[in-house]
Design brief:
The protein is an all-alpha fold. The protein contains four helices and no strands.
């Protein structure tokens, strides 16, 4: 391979890399725009949820929340009542009640149990 061929090959590689970089920049711009829109939508949903929760009638003890939360809470209380000598880990409790065992769902239960045990 002579110098001219080497330089031609290097220029072709440079052009390919520059084209790839341009395409990646366009993708980043598109994803950044989509992310901005999605984050704005999430903020709108959180605001809507907060407003509805403030306007919703209160449940027992003055707590806001949809009826399914009370049902879930009652199912947890019932599980403890049915097995008074058993110490449950949150995952076991979720499996027993057929609840999701993903970390966010179990963290919600941990949080709720922590606030009710104080």
């Amino acid at each position: 391979m002579n110098i001219t061929e080497l330089l031609t090959d290097l220029q072709a590689r440079h052009d390919d890399a520059a084209a790839r970089a341009d395409e990646l920049r366009r993708q980043i711009e598109d994803l950044t725009g989509a992310l901005t829109e999605t984050e704005a939508h999430l903020a709108d949903l959180a605001t809507t949820r907060k407003i509805i929760a403030e306007l919703a009638p209160t449940g027992e003890g003055g707590e806001h929340g949809p009826p399914e939360q009370a049902t879930t809470y009652q199912a947890i209380v019932n599980a403890f009542n049915q097995h008074p000598d058993q110490a449950f880990r949150v995952r076991e409790l979720h499996e027993l009640l057929g609840m999701p065992t993903d970390d966010p769902a179990m963290n919600v239960t941990r949080s709720r149990l922590a606030t009710t045990s104080k």
